[in-house]
Structure formats: C-alpha cells, structure tokens
Amino acid sequence: MYSFRGGMQTLPDEMAKKLRERPNVEISTGSKVVAARVGATGKAQIEVDGGRVIESDHVVNTLPLHSMQGVFGSDQTPMLDHTPYSSVVVVNLTYQGKGRTPVDGFGYLVPRASQHESRALGVVFDSCALPEQDTCDVTRVTVMLGGPRFKELFGSKDVEAEAKLLALDTVQRELGIRGDALDVHVTVGTQCIPTYTTGYVDRLQQMHEWTKRQLNGRMSLVGAAYGGPAVPQCVNHARTHVCDHLNLDTLSQSPQCVSGLEEIIKAFDLPA
C-alpha cells in the first residue's frame, strides 16, 4: 500500500501538471468517446461528443469496458458483455486522539461468507497504514461500502447521507470507536470496480486478439479490467506496457499491433 502526504489525488494532479508543461501535449477532459475508427491516412481517429475528431498514431485505451459498448460499431468481444461493474462508496472518518483502533495494522476486508455480520466491504486503518498523513493528534479510518450489495444497501436513498450513517455505525459496532467524528468525507464511485467472473481468463485471451485487430493495430489497453483493479496494479501495467511493448520511435511509421495485455496473458500461461 502506498500513498502521498496529500493523498492519492497527488498522483494525477502532478502528472497533469508535468504533462501540461510539454508543448506537444494537449489534455482534453469532460468529453465522452462516441466512436473509434481508422481515418483516410491510416491513423486512428477518436470521435468525442460534439463531433470533434482526434487523430493519433496510437491509442492507449483506458475506458471502462461498459464505456466501450458501441464505440467500435458492431465488432464486439465477450469481455465487453460479461464483465459486471460495481459501485463503491468510500467514507473517510477522522476522530480526535491517536491509537483509537483496537489493533495496529492495515485494517480488514469482509469476506462474502461473512457479509451478514457486517454491512461494510472492509475498513482501512489509515492512521496505522499511513501515519505520515496525520498532521495532528487524530485517528483516521476509511470504511468501504457497496460493491455487489450497493442496491441492497442504498436502493433509492440519498447515497451520501446513508453511507455516512452506515460508516459511523460500522466503526462503532466493529471497532468500538464512539463519539462524534471530527470530519466525514463521502466519495461515491459509480460503476468503478470490474468483477472478474468465471471464464475471465478465456475472455481475456479473446480480448487480446480482438484488440490487436482494432484500428489497424494502432490501439492497446490498460486499466482496471485487466490484471487487477488496484491503483498500484494499474500504474505498473501502464508503465510496463509503454516501456516494454511500445516502440515510441516508430509509432508514426507503422502499427504496433500490441494489445497491452501481453504481460498479463503471459502470467496465465496463455499464448501471446
């Protein structure tokens, strides 16, 4: 587990800052991808809502699988239809005083077999795992809620208000931390965690072959749907792909014909 003194948001903020300093980089946000195709010049073209078309020598596709539906027309692959996503609510709680968790450690995750005993997916003891982030005499914990039980827990309720109540109750019942929290911060991640269901490895192999055919070999994939949804896994996957499998010097000359899934496929002993 790793983080930064200012939290994980530091990572994308600093990356964006450094990239904006480069004259050959343009960052466009808030646009939905509606289509991907090969242009008249043989390069990849990405169309976003509003009709703008971005042309590129190579596309690294980080879209969630559910956002890729329809982008490539009728050419689909089973991975797009058989990877359900879950919504997760993260509640950060801060309490007065140090050492208020019953034990020192990372925290705990609740197995599905025990979900009748807890309404949380798990609790992270932030002040134990990342004490450098504590700037005063406090105890910080993070309660994770939702996942496959999102609809059961929240239904049509106000998600943020209900999550706050559930998190405070979880901490009191399961950790014995009582009293008012100094700060409560709720973050809702909608359809953010992919579930690797039965048959995932076979579908991953099909996704690998499908991707190499797209945009005349000018597209590859990275993201939470391949090889693990955690931030460290996603960062490592992206870095390995760019450093070991893309030849940046020849992008404009010829298609790369790599999927981005080579290392993951290899780990499953599948043909790449």
Polypeptide structure, described:
The protein is of the alpha+beta class and 272 residues long. It is built from eight helices and ten strands. A five-stranded antiparallel sheet has the order 6-7-8-5-9. Strands 1-2-3 form a three-stranded antiparallel sheet, with no helix packed on it. It has a two-stranded parallel ribbon with strand order 4-10. A hairpin with a 4-residue loop joins strand 2 and strand 3. The longest helix is centred in the middle third of the chain and has 17 residues, at 159-175. The radius of gyration is 22 Å and the shape is elongated. It starts with 9 loop residues before the first helix and ends in a 5-residue tail after the last helix.
Quickly list its features.
three-stranded antiparallel beta sheet; 10 strands; elongated; single chain; 272 residues; alpha+beta
For the biggest β-sheet, the strand order reads: 6-7-8-5-9
Structural class: alpha+beta
Number of helices: 8
Shape estimate: elongated
Question: What proportion of the residues is helical, as a percent range?
Answer: 25-40%
The whole-number mean of residue pLDDT values reads 94
State the assembly state of the protein chains. Answer: single chain
Count all strands and give the number: 10
Low-confidence stretches: none
Radius of gyration: 22 Å
Biggest sheet details? 5 strands, antiparallel
Approximately what portion of the residues adopt beta-strand conformation? 15-25%
Question: How would you spell out the order of helices and strands?
Answer: HEEEEHEEEHEHHEHEHH
